[in-house]
Amino acid sequence: MTDVVVVGAGIVGASVAYHAARLGAAVTIVDRALPGAGATAESFGWIGASERVPGPGGPLHAIATREYRRLAAELPAVRVYWKGSLLWGGRHTVDDLEPGRHLVDAEQAAALEPNLRTPPKQAVHIPGDGAVDPLATTDALVGAARERGVRLVAGTAVTGLRTVRGRVVGVETTGGLLGADSVVLANGADVPVLCAALGAAVPVGPSPAILLRLTGPPDLVRTIVATPDMDVRAARDGEFVAAVRYTGETSAAELARSAERVRDRIADLFRGGEDVRLMSARVGIRPMPTDGHPLIGPFPAARGAYLAVMHSGITLAPVAGRLVAEELVHGIEAPELQGCRPG
Ligand SMILES: Cc1cc2nc3c(=O)[nH]c(=O)nc-3n(C[C@H](O)[C@H](O)[C@H](O)COP(=O)(O)OP(=O)(O)OC[C@H]3O[C@@H](n4cnc5c(N)ncnc54)[C@H](O)[C@@H]3O)c2cc1C
Q: pLDDT (tens digit, 9 = 90+) per residue, 147-203?
């Protein structure tokens, strides 16, 4: 049996742990806090359907929604809301529409989002897009992993990797040494910290973004609506989430200003939007590989260590978790991961 330690119980680590256990590995997952406490907790939860993401991550994105359907069929607690998205404005090009994306006019946009005050003259509709509650999905993965024997060690930080003659034999933690044949570094924006201790730089940086949770009239927003300055979607009944760009300030005053702007924007966009109330505004730290593409594969600086770090981790968690597990447990190298190798 393979002994795998997964560092980080965000959605990516939880998915790796679940899929590895499903293949029969003995897995321990260690998190310095609770499952989902990192970027995952503050994520917008959009599952993007795209067959044509350019670059090394493209093959993973191309099968991401199919993998969500597979996972939701395996684990009923993974609930995906396949309501599609409606995008307009500068961020979204309409020149080269890939399959599964449709150009819609104002009338069609209004049919999709009846509460829009002024429907855009032209927008892109992606019916295949979905959304999840990132924390609930992580909990579902961790729960299913534990049912398959995975040990969760929460509230315990990994402080370093123990190596013998260049090979990882476990992780040092605030609770002592945990032995392992393989160690998966899925600790998000903190992956470079553990790698630096091995003398290796990993091109991943922290990328803050703001998530707002709001309440308001049910059915105010039906799809995922993405405008140039904000993404918004319904969460559970009468609750919404909105994601906006981080402006560089961390103060409470800056967050309050962002929240104010989002509320005004929702009121401008939607009839009934003036009744939306803010519940919380928080900054989430996204793990952002420098070139924007996932870093997945054996870590060249130490045999037995494996990196699994990516932006769009909500979209990619099911596919990445399955492929990483197949590599670790069965040694099956996934062609979809070839462009993502840390080397
Ligand atoms: C506002 C916002 C909106 C977003 N919207 C989307 C979206 O719509 N779609 C999408 O696909 N992605 C989105 N993302 C990005 C997505 O949330 C992340 O890519 C994803 O959550 C990363 O998951 P992860 O498991 O790799 O990292 P994390 O969720 O950060 O998990 C890392 C875990 O490692 C633990 N940890 C760290 N260091 C240690 C250590 N030394 N020892 C033990 N444990 C450790 C942390 O406690 C944490 O639980 C968004 C992010 C933000 C902030």
A: 999 999 999 999 999 999 999 999 999 999 999 999 999 999 999 999 998 888 999
Using CA atoms, how far apart are residues 307 and 323, in angstroms rounded to an integer?
13
Query: Which atom of ligand 1 is nearest the CA belonging to 310?
Result: 19
Q: Which domains does the chain have, with CATH numbers?
A: 3-77+133-203+290-340 (3.50.50.60), 85-127+206-288 (3.30.9.10)
Question: Could you give the CA distance from residue 287 to residue 293 in angstroms, rounded to a whole number?
Answer: 11
Taking the C-alpha atoms of residue 66 and residue 82, their distance in angstroms, rounded to an integer, is 12
> Per the structure block, which two tokens stand in for 172?
């040092």
Per the listing, tokens 């009239």 go with 217
CB burial string 295-312: b at 16+ within 10 A, e below:
bbbbbebbebbbbbbbbb
User: Is ligand 1 within 6 A of the CB of residue 21?
Assistant: no
Ligand 1 mean position to 109 CA, how many Å?
A: 32
